[in-house]
Design goal:
Layout: E1 2-11, H1 18-29, E2 42-49, H2 53-68, E3 74-82
Antiparallel strand pairs: 1-2, 1-3
């Protein structure tokens, strides 16, 4: 079976996010002062062949832990769906 994983990787809340801070400040400069607390992360989409949903999720978890996210500085979440 083929699955699609949508993965979001974000900096931990306890850490500074200079990109997010710059965007937050820019929001005020363009008249969008209602927007605050911007955090910038990344989105990863990948496809995986696996026998079932649980195996696909295990493989995505492993990819996140070993390669896609630096767990000291980032958190991640993902959704795996059949294609």
């Amino acid at each position: 079976m083929k699955f699609k994983a949508e993965i979001d990787v974000m900096p931990l809340d306890a850490l500074l996010d200079p990109q997010g801070k710059a965007v937050t400040n820019s929001m005020k400069n363009i008249g969008l002062s209602e927007i605050d607390g911007v955090r910038i992360g990344r989105h990863v989409r990948l496809f995986i062949e696996a026998g079932d949903q649980a195996t696909a999720e295990q493989k995505v978890e492993e990819a996140c832990k070993k390669l896609l996210a630096n767990q000291i500085m980032e958190s991640y979440s993902f959704i795996v769906t059949p294609v």
